[in-house]
Design brief:
- By secondary structure, the protein is of the alpha+beta class.
- Helices cover 28% and strands 28% of the residues.
- A six-stranded mixed beta sheet has the order 1-2-3-6-4-5, covered by helices on one side.
- Helix 2 packs across helix 3.
- The longest helix has 18 residues.
């Protein structure tokens, strides 16, 4: 099986100090295989490692990080084909999440599943987004 690991540069202005998490937790930010890019769960942690209080800022950061991974592979958000997002207190935060999503994600829309969860990897995180993109034919 052919696969390519996407590397986020250590000096990434989008990921900042948080780029170290990939090595620390032993995972790749994204893997290209068979015409698809599989993007790991992405959170809304600021470049300095702090977690914003609001769902809007967390969502914007998480989608911005996905956009940056896509950019590193010559793609943009329109390449997304399947997305799953995990939400703490989904009913409380869905309006704010949806507003940011509507502003940043344009047609053609990917499939999207929203799942409510009791918690994420760090206290204060409200959303995590994982995605799959397709390369042009």
């Amino acid at each position: 099986m052919s696969k390519h690991i996407v590397e986020v540069p250590d000096d990434s202005p989008v990921f900042g100090d948080t780029v170290k998490a990939f090595a620390n937790f032993g995972y790749s930010p994204a893997v290209r295989s068979h015409g698809h890019l599989f993007i790991a769960g992405t959170i809304g942690r600021r470049v300095d490692g702090t977690i914003p209080d609001g769902i809007e800022e967390q969502t914007e950061i998480a989608i911005g990080r996905i956009a940056e991974i896509l950019r590193l592979e010559g793609l943009d958000l329109s390449a997304l084909v399947d997305v799953t997002s995990y939400h703490v207190d989904i009913h409380q935060h869905l309006p704010g999440f949806s507003a940011v999503k509507a502003r940043l994600i344009e047609p053609p829309f990917p499939t999207w599943s929203l799942i409510g969860v009791s918690g994420l990897a760090s206290p204060g995180l409200l959303v995590e987004i994982r995605a799959t993109a397709a390369y042009p034919d």
